[in-house]
């Protein structure tokens, strides 16, 4: 089927409109982050007077600064949740794909349903439970809820990849003397690497972007992550709003994720597409 010049033109215009609409809020936040308090409300996209004070203010004071400790918390909590989720999801997905047991489809469907569950619905019970168990305002107090929602999604993605791996390879490895775990670790797991990488990225982004759990299950910078910490930014007085600092923090939190996704976009799309087709 051949496409005419007019159709290409319409598609190009549509893509350009969508791109501008998507990027405008990002550009506006970037613009606010470089404006002075006096010009932050002037309505100009390009700052009349550029300043880096909003970024410097985020890190002034070292570990007592508004952003440094929450940024470290975000990185560590997201990485720990990702490593645990990928490790557990790989074993669970392998078992679901490899073993034949009653209710397997129900288990897989339940995993997908749990991953779509609204987090706000469990915040109340978790708040009381965490305070009783001493998990409130701690790393595990955030990592566990993240695993609750991210782990089922990772399992669902990885099952599709494990199902498409020829099991003759595993049997051949065992014939050569490998144990079942060695065959999984050396043969099956590397072949499922695209799916594992896709699952890891999605889990990391979920943990990095979370606001509901971070704002509800923390009370100090001991474990508070960046999205929640931004909500506690204050101005120099009750009559000033830290708009520039909030915009600068938003840029610092968002840009790494955007760069990360752009670098690995092919692998992410390939992993999601393969999982969808093969599932």
UniProtKB/TrEMBL annotation:
PROSITE patterns linked to this entry: ABC_TM1
Keyword Transmembrane helix applies: yes
Keyword Cell wall biogenesis/degradation: no
Main location: membrane
Pfam assignment, any one: BPD_transp_1
Membrane-protein topology: Multi-pass membrane protein
Taxonomic superkingdom: Bacteria
Extent of the signal sequence: none
SUPFAM superfamilies, alphabetized: MetI-like (SSF161098)
Transmembrane segment boundaries: 12-34, 71-94, 106-127, 139-162, 187-208, 246-264
Keywords recorded for this protein, A-Z: Cell membrane, Membrane, Transmembrane, Transmembrane helix, Transport
PANTHER family found in the cross-reference section: INNER MEMBRANE ABC TRANSPORTER PERMEASE PROTEIN YCJP, MALTOSE TRANSPORT SYSTEM PERMEASE-RELATED
Similarity field: Belongs to the binding-protein-dependent transport system permease family.
Protein name as annotated: Carbohydrate ABC transporter permease
